[in-house]
């Protein structure tokens, strides 16, 4: 479990938000792109479009691929930016260092897709404090 600052993206071809210490920069994740985890396999992207790229802190030499995290917004410097009570499940499908529009700051933890970001916060907020926890799913 970790709380990280989550600034929102600026304009780019396919902007995404990143979770980083202490602030983040936009990056690019695209459901039609080739990823460091699964190449060009389109089935890697969840139907919800709640996916992300892993920063070096959780990349774990590629072991992060396919991992899932529960993500929620805790607070923001902008009033009412967080969508209260919203927690989403995201899937790691890429490496933050290899996405087309890389975060400009070191220490990015998670780069969220636009759909994932919009589900937990107002995309106009300049920064967010989020909580993320690895989700464990076990089949019997």
Please describe the topology of this protein.
Layout: E1 2-5, E2 15-20, E3 27-28, E4 51-54, H1 56-59, E5 68-76, E6 87-95, E7 108-112, H2 114-120, E8 128-135
Parallel strand pairs: 4-6
Antiparallel strand pairs: 1-8, 2-3, 2-7, 4-7, 5-6, 5-8
Protein name: EG45-like domain containing protein 1 isoform X3
Organism: Nicotiana tabacum
Write a concise synopsis of the structure shown.
With 140 residues, the protein is mostly beta strands. It contains 2 helices and 8 strands; from the N terminus they run ββββαβββαβ.
Characteristics of this structure?
disordered N terminus; 140 residues; EG45-like domain containing protein 1 isoform X3; 8-stranded mixed β-sheet; single chain
What this model shows, in words?
The protein has two helices and eight strands, in the order ββββαβββαβ. By secondary structure, the chain is mainly β. Strands 1-8-5-6-4-7-2-3 form an eight-stranded mixed β-sheet. The chain is globular and about 40 Å long. This is EG45-like domain containing protein 1 isoform X3. It comes from Nicotiana tabacum.
- Strand numbers in spatial order across the main sheet: 1-8-5-6-4-7-2-3
Mean of residue pLDDT values: 75
Overall 3D shape: globular
| Main sheet properties | 8 strands, mixed
String of helices and strands: EEEEHEEEHE
Number of continuous helical runs: 2
Beta-strand proportion: 25-35%
Query: Could you give the count of β-strands?
Result: 8
How far apart are the termini?
25 Å
Helix coverage percent? under 10%
Structural class: mainly beta
Compute the gyration radius: what is it? Answer: 14 Å
- Low-pLDDT runs of 5+ residues are 1-27
